[in-house]
């Protein structure tokens, strides 16, 4: 059961309840986090943490502003997790011998390879390009994208086109 506490709105706007922002934003946040993290469980954890911070924090605004705040919070939490995971991986790699995984079915192996190539192509992009592509995929408007990456709304189209081209270039480099 979700709490029905109100999230305060700015003067002249309609208050948004936690329930409304949760139901409107949760699925898109999880999809975004899964694409960024590549791990469904980590994605769910990070999104839940973002909503906990929303409840615990002094966050005010209308639905669109809260949506942007949540996406920014999820992005920052994912960055923090990636740093911790990278440090942990380095430590484990130095301590553990290499192991092999069991063979997979051919179809599943191909699918996993495509996913790996897309993920690697995304990881090769700089953070702004990756953020633009993933948030646009989640339906962010050019104005919202501009706010997330700190540019003028008029330049988002050009930046997005360049990000898409760099992604295609990276993906074709990765394709055997």
Structure description:
With about 180 residues, the chain is mostly helical. The chain folds into 2 domains: about 1-100, Rna Polymerase Sigma Factor, Chain: A; about 105-175, Arc Repressor Mutant, subunit A. It is built from 7 helices and 2 strands; from the N terminus they run ββααααααα. The chain has helices at about 20-35, 40-55, 65-95, 105-125, 125-135, 140-150, 155-175, and strands at about 5, 15. A two-stranded antiparallel sheet has the order 1-2. A hairpin with an 8-residue loop joins strand 1 and strand 2. Helix 5 crosses helix 7. The radius of gyration is 19 Å and the shape is globular. The termini are far apart. The model is unreliable at about 1-5 and about 10-15 (pLDDT under 50).
CATH-defined topology of the largest domain? Rna Polymerase Sigma Factor, Chain: A
Number of domains: 2
Tell me, rounded to a whole number, the average pLDDT.
80
CATH class of the largest domain: Mainly Alpha
Helix content: over 70%
Helix/strand class:
mainly alpha
Report strand %.
under 5%
Number of strands: 2
Return residue spans where pLDDT drops below 50 for at least 5 consecutive residues.
1-6, 9-13
As laid out across the biggest beta sheet, the strand order is 1-2
SSE topology string? EEHHHHHHH
Distance separating the two termini: 49 Å
CATH architecture title of the largest domain:
Orthogonal Bundle
């Amino acid at each position: 059961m979700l709490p029905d506490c109100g999230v305060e709105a700015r003067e002249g706007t309609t208050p948004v309840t936690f329930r409304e922002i949760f139901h409107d934003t949760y699925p898109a946040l999880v999809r975004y986090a899964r694409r960024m993290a590549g791990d469904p469980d980590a994605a769910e954890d990070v999104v839940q943490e973002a909503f906990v911070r929303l409840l615990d924090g002094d966050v005010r605004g209308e639905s669109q502003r809260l949506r942007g705040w949540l996406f920014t919070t999820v992005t920052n939490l994912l960055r923090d997790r990636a740093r911790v995971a990278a440090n942990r991986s380095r430590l484990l790699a130095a301590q553990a011998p290499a192991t092999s995984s069991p063979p997979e079915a051919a179809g599943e192996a191909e699918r996993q390879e495509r996913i790996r190539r897309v993920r690697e192509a995304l990881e090769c992009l700089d953070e702004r390009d990756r953020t633009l592509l993933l948030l646009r995929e989640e339906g962010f408007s050019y104005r919202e994208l501009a706010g997330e990456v700190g540019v003028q709304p008029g330049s988002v189209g050009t930046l997005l086109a360049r990000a898409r081209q760099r992604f295609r270039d990276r993906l074709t480099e990765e394709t055997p």
